[in-house]
Amino acid sequence: MAGREGLGISHPNIAFIKYWGKEASGENIPLNGSISQTLTELKTVTRVVCGEGGDMITYDGASFEKVDAKAEKVISIFRKMTGDSSPLKIITESNFPASCGLASSASGISALALALNDFYSASLPEEELSKISRAGSGSAARSIHKGIVHMQKDAARSVCHWPELRIFAVLVSGEKKKVGSTEGMQRTVATSSLFKQRQSSIGEKLEKMLLHVKGRDFEKFALLTMKDSNEMHACCMDSFPPVFYMNDRSREIVETVNNFNAGGIRLAYTFDAGPNAFIVTLQSTYSEAWGLFERKGFTLVAAL
Ligand code: PMV
């Protein structure tokens, strides 16, 4: 079957209500729902061709290496489904730095699922591809869908589009995080009492967020986004041993946003499991916000 090829293109996403905590099944089933935006300016393009020996992968033109466990989980689902176990060569390229908190695993895993769907001519619906992506990385399930996406325990779906919404990343560190999200979540679920409180109110928060995004109420949306990011990071700090993802530069970003918002909320910050921020705003404030962070010497990446 030499000459066969599959292509998948996908994007990272940033959560406004975070997924933090998963069931113990090993299948990345989230303990709570989440709401995200797919970041279409950031892109991963993945090609799958027939390989030799074992499964190999190359990132951004670097030399081939063995496929990691997350990607192997996704591959094994397609193998079981198709009965085709021939080795694969995976060529993947992203237009943004990998492993620096820009949700590269969501983008990479979902692009791989799409490329395998093409390679095996499986023609699976988005719903199925989203579930397969979740097996590799929980947040990857959201990247299969465009716009604002609501992920529940069993599935993720696009709920609406907000065309005026604009997002850029503020990079403060390219270092690989010391505590991965799976380990961080496990620590939080096992030890944080604040997390239990979060779980009891998250249903209500999700409802509110859906109302704010559908009603395009930026002020309420932005405030809830910032508070949810704060709460996730507070749960990380409340874990034992504590997990710190944000650093002094991250806190400087929080302060910059709060000072800017003194006369009314026009910006939101949100942080995933890392020190880099995403700044969320509306088209009308975008260039002012970009200039503000540029003047402070941060490296910025346009995301939406
Ligand atoms: O799917 P993972 O393992 O990358 O976990 C994602 C966790 C957060 O990015 C912190 C929150 C989220 O909902 O994306």
Radius of gyration: 19 Å
Query: How many strands, which pairing sense, and closed or not: the largest β-sheet?
Result: 5 strands, mixed
Strand arrangement in the largest pleated sheet: 1-4-7-5-6
Strand content: 15-25%
Class from helix and strand fractions: alpha+beta
Mean pLDDT: 95
Low-confidence residue ranges: none
Task: Provide a brief overview of the structure.
The chain is α+β, with helices and mostly antiparallel strands and 304 residues long.
Note the topology.
Elements: E1 5-10, E2 13-17, E3 34-38, E4 44-50, E5 56-59, E6 65-66, H1 69-82, E7 88-94, H2 104-119, H3 126-136, H4 140-143, E8 148-151, E9 156-160, E10 165-171, H5 181-191, H6 193-214, H7 218-238, H8 248-260, E11 267-271, E12 277-282, H9 286-295, E13 299-302
Helix pairs in contact: 1-2, 1-3, 2-3, 6-7
The chain binds (3R)-3-hydroxy-3-methyl-5-(phosphonooxy)pentanoic acid.
(3R)-3-hydroxy-3-methyl-5-(phosphonooxy)pentanoic acid is lined by residues 15, 18-20, 34, 105-106, 137-139, 181-182, 272-273.
How would you describe the overall organization of this protein?
The protein is of the alpha+beta class. Helices cover 40% and strands 22% of the residues. The protein contains 9 helices and 13 strands. The protein has helices at 69-82, 104-119, 126-136, 140-143, 181-191, 193-214, 218-238, 248-260, 286-295, and strands at residues 5-10, 13-17, 34-38, 44-50, 56-59, 65-66, 88-94, 148-151, 156-160, 165-171, 267-271, 277-282, 299-302. The strands form 3 sheets. Strands 1-4-7-5-6 form a 5-stranded mixed β-sheet. Helix 1 crosses helix 3 (126-136), helix 2 (104-119) crosses helix 3 (126-136) and helix 6 (193-214) packs antiparallel against helix 7. The relative contact order is 0.17. The structure holds (3R)-3-hydroxy-3-methyl-5-(phosphonooxy)pentanoic acid. The site of (3R)-3-hydroxy-3-methyl-5-(phosphonooxy)pentanoic acid has 14 residues, from helix 2 and helix 5.
